[in-house]
Structures are given as C-alpha cells and as structure tokens.
Amino acid sequence: MKKVTLCGTLLLDEIKMIDRYPEKGMLVTITGTGRAVGGAVCNSGVDLKTLAPDIAVEARGKVGDDEKGDFILNFLSARGLDVSHVLRTKTAPTSFTDVMTLESTGERTFFTMRGACSELTPEDVDVDSLDCDLFHLGYLLLLDGMDKENAEYGTEAARLLSMVQAKGIKTSIDVVSEQSDRFERVVRPALKYCDYVVINEIEGGRVAGISPHNENGKLSLARLEQICRKLMEMGVREVVTVHCPKLSCSLDRDGVFTVLPSVGLSKKEIVGTVGAGDAFCAGMLYGLVSGMSAKESMRVASCAAICNLLVPDSVSGAKPLAETMKMEEKYGFEALTDIE
After folding, report:
1. pLDDT per residue of the chain (340 residues) written in tens, 0 to 9
2. What's the predicted TM-score (pTM) here?
3. Are 21 and 28 in contact (CB under 8 A)?
4. Which of 111, 134, 211, 339 has the most neighbouring CB atoms within 10 Å?
5. How far is CA 191 from CA 208, 250, 263, in A?
C-alpha cells in the first residue's frame, strides 16, 4: 500500500452569508452560516483519500485545544485519514477563516486567524516516525514557523524537507497565493529539497521571477515553460507542474515539457472555486506516487479540479478515480484561445 503524508495548514472555514457589505460602523444581517475544513492538509488530504481509498493518507500539523480543532480532527478521521500525529496546542487557537459571502453575487471576503498553524516547526513533525512514500508540505508563506530563516538551509521548511529526503522519502510542496515580495526569500530555498512542485501560474511566476503573461497580457506557453525550467534549475529533482484555469503543464527531469488543456467546464457551471487548486494537487500527488507520467498525472489532476468546481465547498465534490475521470468525457477540453 502506498502512503502519503500531508503536513502543514489545517484550518476551519466559518462561512457567513450576508445580504450586503456594511459601511464602516454599520450593521448587516447574517442570513446563513456554515463551516468547512480548509487548508492544504484537509483539502488535498480528503481529496486524495476519496480519489484513491487504497492509499494510506496521514495528516500532520497543529490545531488548538478547542472545539474547532475537534471538528477538524473528527472530520478527517471520519474520511479515513490518520490524524494520530496532529498535535494540539494550548497556546494558540485552531487556525480559522471567517468567510463573508454576499448572497446576491457569491463574492467573498476573508478574515483569517493564523493561529496554531503559525506555531508549526520541523521539530513538531517528528521525522523519525515518518513512514511514507511521499511527504507533501503546504502552504509555504502561511506557516510562520516553517517560513522562518535558517542560516544553513535558507528556511526551516527547507531544513525539514532535507531531513525527510534523507530518509529516502519523496518530497513535494505547495504555496499560498499572496501579493508580496516574499516568494524569493521563503519558497526558493525549499526547491533544492523537493522532488515535486505543484503550483499555479501566478505563484510559479513569482518564485521564478518571470511573468506567465506576455506584454499583451496573454498567457504565454513559452513563459510557462521558462518558469518550469527556472524552478528545475533552482533544484527540483523530478517534476515541476504549473496549473492554470485553461491548462496545466509539466517539466520532468529529462527536460520533457508537456502541456495539457484543462477539462472544459463553462463559467456558468462553476458553483465554487474554493479548494480547486488543492484538488488539482491531490490528483497530481496520486499520479506521481502511483508512478504515472506527468501527462497522465495532469489528466487525473484536471478532472479532480473539475469535480471540486461543481460544489460550493472545498472537499464535497471529491470522487473515486473512475468517477473522476468521467469528467473528460462529459465536459471535453478547453480550447486554448487567448494563449500564445
């Protein structure tokens, strides 16, 4: 049995439906509430376990000693994930995000508490106890304890990934999208200790220092290839994958660059976009740990992302592999227009 460990961000989305946005100091009505798990470990972990029940999926990270932490652990455990190595802390609350959703448009505004995830350090992971084929760490840029500078490795995350690779375990990372200048400082040091990287075009461009769009603002296949090659030059050992709404592309260690159009879901059919990148990541992790080629892995990943786009939350759209792959036949593929 293959085993994948996902480590990093575990959080709870507290969803509030509102009738309008308030002006400063004014009151609006909350018309509905809900909650859902979120973060790299929860989203990609549940998606991966649903996609391939025969893969053992383990969660590692840190939650608070509170009701939100109970909810996350119970949710993951009920869906077949091993949560025995998730730590509880009394010094910070479980990480959560208040998601304010405007009823009329679905537009969302986020207020996040970094909480327990910000405390996570390499020492919390207990590398000696790891027994997996693939170790995935996400999200860099949102894990304060992992993003800290390390004089020898560059960052604490890079130090952790180095220790994991020393055990003969494949490593993978994902990052969070943010508008900042931290990508070079925080993400680049980890790349030399990664076997795989799964990242979107904006994140990849910021890490590489190359815009994925040309001077006319169009997505450029040539620039996407440059981004992939730059990330490989920075130390990624086996496969770099960059995903965009219309396509995904991968560069393998032999220098083979592959482009695959996304499954062609129309905008009017999209119910929600929360966790779509994590679903894509789960599909890639499945393919890579199963020994698939980059192209076949991207096929699974694209279909997994479509399943996610058909539901409003981050994980309820996940399906077993056979059902997931039916998305190709049902929806066809994106026409790669407006791309140069």
Report:
1. 999 999 999 999 998 889 998 999 999 999 988 899 999 999 999 999 999 999 999 999 999 999 999 999 999 999 999 999 999 999 999 999 998 888 887 777 888 899 999 999 999 999 999 999 999 999 999 999 999 999 999 999 999 999 999 999 999 999 988 878 899 999 999 999 999 999 999 999 999 999 999 988 899 999 999 999 999 999 999 999 999 999 999 999 999 999 999 999 888 888 887 889 999 999 999 999 999 999 999 999 999 999 999 988 889 999 999 999 999 999 999 878 777 7
2. 0.94
3. yes
4. 134
5. 11, 16, 29
